[in-house]
Amino acid sequence: MKKTKLIIAAVAVALTLGGGILLASDHADAPNVKGKSTDITDLYVFQGANTNNLVFVGNVQGLMSPTTTQTASFDENTEIEFKIDNTGDNVEDLVIQCVYKGGKMYIYGPVKPAQTGLTSTIVGTAAVVVPVTPYGSAPIIATSKSGIMAFAGPRDDPFFFDLDQFHKITGGTATGFNNPGTDTFAGTNVLSVVVEVPKTLLNSTGKLGVWLRTAQNH
Amino acid sequence: MKKNIIYSIIGLCALTFTLSACHKDKNVTPADPNTGEVFAVVGDQVGRPGIATVFVAAADRDNFNATIPSVMGAAYQAKFQTQLQAYNGGAYTTNLLGLSAAAFTGVLATDVLNVSTTGKTTYYDGTNVLTGRQLSDDVIDVSLILVFGGPTATANPGLTSDHVDHNDKPFLTSFPYEAAPW
Question: How far is CA B53 from the centre of its chain?
């Protein structure tokens, strides 16, 4: 009985997989972004080492080997934007906009967006500009007058999951995970933008809704 | 004839030089090179980890990325509920959070990461639920438990943890927190 249930579950999981790496975090999630500079892997938002700050991490271009990472680059035509709702209606009230140009990441906001939704217009002048840290170098960190810290560059993918065993389950050659499991994302890198913001700049009454978007200029 | 070609080339070079010089001037003012730039071509969108890949049908994935969060619930809750029941062979009742299939998928379908600005930020730590996402949060196990584990997290024991509970490199205690690349 229990076995039947497991098999049913495994089959159902297999239905959604359909082959290839699909169930990751958001790595290579959809046809229009797979393998492109717009492909987001993960969003993280957490309290900083200074608990008066909130840290926003946006990762793109996942599953990179060390060799691939050496020549990987942000795309000048792709904007990376943190959307922040502080009123609970799931519509952004503030945005943090990240645009790569000439080897540097320009970071705007947090600022009220010119319009909500799918189209983004870069608002005002950059709060902080940080040179992208080259592969193999110590992190380059820039701090604005208002206390915003910024980093952009390659990092180890912080996501972890035994995706290979999951594939075996869905493929019918295993009925469950191994203990211990094996991290399929071990040894892979992402391109990362990290922005640490004083909470006072977020106009929050205690709760935020955050999502990460990428968009291109043409 | 040959001379003409050379003159043309020189002229072209001069023109190019002038144009690029003009272009350069334009870049000096305004000081910010991106102000007012418009990014209108839809790319990717993520709130919580794994939502698109676990609950959105392959054919809907590009559409999901182009759906603003305020209308996601109406567009996707029913589809997510069907998918949740499919994962559980139709046997999903509630999960560890006590959420019915409709309530759980209602939360998930609006793909926005909830973040507290007043306390601990974690995806789930046994006490705090959906108050952020730390680098070290084992979001896969949380998701597996909530999807497969039933009301007491004991159903389908082989599917409720992948037994990978930490990253392959230690995180930093200070900015930028993520580990150096491999």
Answer: 11
Contacts of B62 in chain A (CB under 8 A): 30-32
| Strand boundaries in chain A, DSSP class E | 40-47, 53-64, 78-85, 94-101, 104-111, 120-121, 128-131, 142-143, 149-156, 189-198, 207-216
Reported as a single tens digit per residue, the pLDDT across A163-195 is 888 778 767 799 899 999 999 999 999 999 999
At A95-140, the pLDDT tens digits run: 999 999 999 999 999 999 999 999 999 999 999 999 999 999 999 9
Assess if residue B107 is contained within a domain. Answer: yes
| Domain count of the fold of chain B | 1
Do A216 and B43 make contact, defined as CB atoms within 8 angstroms?
yes
Residue B84 lies in a domain: yes
To test the contact with chain A by mutation, choose from B34, B67, B116, B143 the residue with the greatest count of A C-beta atoms within 10 A, namely: B34
Report the pLDDT averaged over residues A139-153: 97
Q: Enumerate the domain spans of chain A.
A: 37-163+181-216
Host domain of residue B103: 51-159
Residue B34 lies in a domain: no
Check CB contact under 8 Å for A208 and B117.
yes
Residue B47's closest chain A neighbor by CA? Answer: A211
Q: pTM for this one?
A: 0.88
Element (H, E) at B26: helix B2-28
The sign of the torsion formed by the CA atoms of A22, A24, A28, A29 equals positive
In a domain, B151, yes or no: yes
A89, with CB counted inside 10 A (0-12, 13-18, 19+), is exposed
pLDDT of residue B30: 52
B25 and chain A in contact, CB less than 8 A: no
SS3 content of chain B, % helix, strand, coil (to 5): 45, 10, 45
